[in-house]
Amino acid sequence: MFDFINDDKFRSILERDFKELEVLHASKASKSILVLTGSLIETVLVEYFLSKIPEGYTDKQILTISLGELLELALKHKLISQRSMELSTVIKDYRNLIHPGREIRKNETFNFETANVAFSLLKIIVSELRENYLKLYGYTAKDVMQKITADDLSINIFDELIEKLNQSEKIKLFNSIVEFKKYLANKRLFLEKIKPYLPEEIIIDKLTHLLHLIETGDSSEVLYYYNLFHSDIGILDDSSINLIAKYILSYIKEERDLGAIQKFATRQTFTSVGKHIRIEKNERLFIEVLLDYYVFREQNRYVDSLYLQMINGLETTKRQEIELKLDKQKETYVDLTFGNRFFEDNDLPF
User: Residue 66: which residues within 8 A CB-CB, separation 6 or more?
Assistant: First the structure.
């Protein structure tokens, strides 16, 4: 309900309080409903006006002005309709029921029907706020997606475009880029630029999907997601990292279509595979893969390129250690089937 709210802390408070409000509504706790309804609307408006301070106000004033004044500002800035402003009396007048003296002094009376009107009005106002907030706040994910798919130069202003999105739109944009399976120049760079704005669970969700694809999907889908998220794999547990590393190394070693491998290699897909080695079994497989490419690197520049991509991803000491092993094993290398992948029918796949 409040996913359009930009500030994480405010959004968390709103979601928590609305869950409590639903419980209160179910139990017909009239006074509590009236008080909390006003609090929720006040919180939404404070969050907005703190992000866009109205002329003549300071952030300190926004935090201390009444709900009535906040609603007047919301109407002035076209966040809510005139009709909602008129109906909001039911919320404004009962907001101060939290003070028992006012209830006695003003002889305030209310019942569940009143509280139910306030509960319904909250949903109406939040719906209006949601629609108008996104229009007034800045771009939407759809706007930015249209820009980056139509203009390759948009990568140069992408940081500025991100800043004009609220949090929910940033998440939508991130997912839209991931789900856009057609060619998009700088796709991974777009994602890398937006990742710092996202909660870690969003990235973990994509990595979980990658693991699911490894277990149930096809290799093209696995490679697609691995290409986009291989730099994030380190946040997973060792068991998951080992599974991903084993799959990718097995793919590089066994894929017969070296053109397919090269397609991913040109996107620097395999730069971090060596960093994800956690067990000896995978290190042996990694060395086997490197040996295949090490032996034939001088005969094919694409083989050399892929070899360097994998080996250069290692720390200097580890790289030197592995290259010594490769040099020793080169003389006894007998896997002619790998060489045939390059030279079958004298037709290179590149």
Answer: none
Instruction: Classify burial at 9, counting beta carbons within 10 Å of its beta carbon; exposed 0-12, middle 13-18, buried 19 or more.
Output: exposed
In this predicted model, what pLDDT tens digit does every residue of 94-107 receive, in sequence order?
555 554 544 545 55
Say how far apart CA 314 and CA 274 lie, in whole Å.
6
CB of 319 within 8 A of CB of 312? yes
State mean pLDDT over 272-289: 91
The answer to whether the beta carbons of residues 46 and 70 sit under 8 Å apart is yes
Query: Side chain identity at 49, as an amino acid letter?
Result: F
Tell me the Ramachandran region of residue 180: left when phi exceeds 0, alpha when psi lies from -120 to 50, beta otherwise: beta
pTM, entire model: 0.64
Nearest 5 degrees, angle CA 134-CA 137-CA 141? 55
Q: Which amino acid is at 54?
A: P
Distance, CA of 156 to CA of 159 (rounded, Å): 8
126 contact partners, CB below 8 Å, separation of at least 6 = 1, 2, 40, 41, 44
Start-end of CATH 1.20.120.330 domains in the chain: 8-137
CATH architecture of the domain 8-137 equals: Up-down Bundle (1.20)
